[in-house]
Amino acid sequence: MLKKRFFKTKAEADVTFEFACDTSTSLINSDIVELHADFNNWQPIPMKYIKKDNVFRTKVRLPTNQNFHFRYLINSNEWHNDHKADLYLPNTYGTDNSVVSTLRTK
Question: Which of 5, 9, 21, 56 sits most deeply, having the most CB atoms within 10 A of its CB?
Answer without folding.
Answer: 56
